Amino acid sequence: MARKIKLVLQEIGNFELSLVRITTESIYGKRFTEKRSLNGETLSQISVSLDDFHFLTPKSVNLIYMDDDLLYTSEVVPTDKEGNKLTIIEDMFKSEILLDKVITIDEFFTYNISKTYILESDSDFNQLIEYCNNLLSQNKLLVFTYAYRKTAYPETAILVPQGSNLFVEVGNSFQPLWCKLNVNLPISSEEEEEEEEIDFSQF
Amino acid sequence: MKMHISYKNIDTTIEIIPTSKTIKKYFRSLNGKKVSRKRILIFDSNLRDEELLKKENLNELLRDKDCDVDIEVAGKIINKSIRIIVDKDMKPVYSYREYEILIQPDGTRKEKIHSIRYPNLNEEFPVKISDKLIDPIDIVKNYIISHSFFITHTDGVTYKFLYEIAKNLSNEKKFARLISYDPISKKPSPLILREGGKPFAGIFLEGRIKGDEYCLILHLSEQELKKPVSLERMEEKNNENSK
With contact defined as beta carbons under 8 Å apart, do A96 and A6 qualify? Predict the structure, then answer.
């Protein structure tokens, strides 16, 4: 069941839209490798613990947080490397999302997209699609903060129009790397080069 | 990673660097102690559902004896593990065949003998920067860029070569389309960075310049930006019902 977000575009209005996830699988099909014994039986891949040689079948292992004294802790706080608490962002479904930020096409290409959704609704949201199409013709795209759950690591959601469809691409951006020539050549003037003589002396 | 590229019939080997690093996440307990994630064993294969269901009077056993819990095993920390192939009786199997299965969105199943995808990034046949330029807006509208890499020079000669490419692309305000080849058949095929890695059919090169500095970004796409067939069919059905 797709979750709904409430987008608010001040000049146009409010839109309650379903976020429908699009994966490579949903477009091109589910691809996987199946291992079969020589008599045709389908085999499975499992893990074996090297500590005591336990066969680890699905759901037989749990991940829990433990401190250095191997004491279990049920609640954890996200921090930076130095231990300073990070700001927690509430999930985006709790309140309305104000669409007041835009990025340029150049900035769009500094994002690596991790998730894609299509926006769906029973009611008409053509005005929003049209607004996004107009922005795209000016080389701009609307963005908002993406937090599917309460998190300290929110991502950026970018609204990408394509005809009558409106997609949401989610990802994180990076800083461009500028490269220049940086070589350590011996500094010599042309005059010095002319005067330079080759010295064959051995000692 | 090294990459063998060609541009206007000149080839060279350059370096590519991932544009983003995995964010390392740190957590502390409520009393400020450093915490890390550990794998804890709940049960091993002797107590998996299939084994429990073989027992007679399972309801009574679960009620009276907690037969689904082995206190000698439950709670053990798992440090290292390896992956093995087993049959339905959990016996290791060493001889097997691998098949690639594709279940298409319409439900049709296709299968073929599995073949390893070999990287074609730094092979004898270079990845060609084609003369075909593409508008960035067309890329935004049609492809999902999931991975990107910076292209960097390795010496003064490759600096000049790459600066020239970046300058041309920057002046044109367009991206170049790259064509990668299968190292064996020498036919165009998706770009594969690592053995068994994802195939990237969409390979685009963006170039920017700033004085004597350049920035070349390789954008990779394994997916087109389009509505899944299943959603389109659902819409068609809804439209028919409403009529």
Answer: yes
Cα distance from A176 to chain B (closest Cα, Å)? 7
Q: What is the ipTM of this complex?
A: 0.85
CB contact under 8 A, A60 and B83: no
Q: Which of B73, B79, B222 sits opposite A24 (nearest CB)?
A: B222
> Taking the CA atoms of chain B, what radius of gyration do you get in angstroms?
27
Whether B55 contacts B61, CB under 8 Å:
yes
Per-residue pLDDT tens for A49-70?
887 788 888 888 999 999 888 8
Interacting residues of B220 by C-beta distance below 8 A, sequence separation 6+: B145, B146, B147, B148, B149, B191, B200, B202, B203, B204
Size of interface A-B (CB pairs under 8 A): 269
Contact A27 B105 (CB under 8 A): yes
Q: Please report residues of B whose CB lies closer than 8 A to that of A56.
A: 41, 44-45, 78, 81
Indicate if the alpha-carbon torsion angle B179, B185, B186, B192 is positive or negative: positive
Tell me the per-residue pLDDT of B174-211, one tens digit each, with 9 for 90 and over. Answer: 999 999 999 888 899 999 999 989 999 999 999 999 99
Distances (CA, A) of A33 to A44, A117, B95: 11, 26, 16
- At A81-120, the pLDDT tens digits run 998 999 999 999 999 999 999 999 999 999 999 999 999 9
Predicted confidence (pLDDT) per residue in B10-37, tens digit = 999 999 999 988 888 999 998 889 999 9
Q: What is the DSSP string of A175-202?
A: ----B-----PPP--HHHHHH-------
pLDDT at B56: 80
